[in-house]
């Protein structure tokens, strides 16, 4: 039988659950010693390694490994892996300069992954702590007040251009009746929206570029706006729709809460930046 053949040794869900529970219980009982299932020379195949390797295979093969024949066959696979490993260890490869160089690079890569993972974990836990202390998490009253002051959600399209002259030409073309989506696909420098005809996802006040925000909210539905200058270039806009938000909808409340939390975090980081000034070194980013 092939190692990857699932056969007819199917196990019903109840038996499967019981078997998994027994494996976990066995592992717990032997956690201190980590039972040795097999040896290949001086190399060991332990209970914990067996369990870890099971987790790396597909669900279908895991079902097969839960059967008696499947368990033995899977152990044979691990034995074969150890035979390959012990043969490699006895060869000249471990002493080669190429192997040592690759191993050192592997260590550096792993250290970088651990460092980045640790930084991500630290950041996540710090943000959780800020929320618990109420430093950035908005109250229900703050959410309600924001939705009362800024009750609308808008859908807009834009075309990003490099110069005011080009933006004026495009704006004139659109006000003359040209198809906005087609012009955006052809002319816009914003690759993220050009393919969808310049369309943004629905936006709230506070989610729009500050340079465009007040104009967008004053525009009428279907109106062409701009050109307007931002740090990215020159924008020509069209307001497609405008809808009222409902405080009764949990999704709307959560969305506004996320927006307010981001704004509070931005203000908090401004205070941090006063202690740790930011200096851009590379000229191409200035």
Note the main attributes of this structure.
4-stranded antiparallel β-sheet, 56% helix, Chitinase A, domain 3, alpha+beta, elongated, 286 residues, 6 strands, 11 helices, two-stranded antiparallel sheet
CATH architecture of the domain at 152-244: Roll
Q: Structural class of the helices, strands and pairings?
A: alpha+beta
**Could you give the order of the helices and strands?**
HEEHHHHHEHHHEHEEH
Beta strand count: 6
β content, as a range? 5-15%
What is the helical fraction, as a range of percent? 55-70%
CATH topology of the domain at 152-244, by name, is Chitinase A, domain 3
- The pLDDT mean sits at 87
Determine the number of helices (DSSP H or I, runs of at least 4 residues).
11
Low-confidence sequence ranges = 1-11
Question: Biggest sheet, in brief?
Answer: 4 strands, antiparallel
Please give the CATH class of the domain at 152-244.
Alpha Beta
Oligomer: single chain
Topology, element by element:
Elements lengths: L12 H17 L6 E5 L2 E4 H8 L4 H7 L2 H22 L7 H36 L7 H10 L2 E10 L2 H12 L4 H8 L3 H4 L8 E2 L5 H9 L5 E7 L2 E12 L5 H26 L11
Antiparallel strand pairs: 1-2, 3-4, 3-6, 5-6
Question: What does this protein look like?
Answer:
This protein is α+β, with helices and mostly antiparallel strands and 286 residues long. Among the domains are: 77 residues, no CATH class; 93 residues, Roll (Chitinase A, domain 3), CATH 3.10.50.40. Helix content is 56%, strand content 14%. It has a four-stranded antiparallel β-sheet with strand order 4-3-6-5. Strand 5 and strand 6 form a beta hairpin. The protein is elongated, with a radius of gyration of 30 Å.
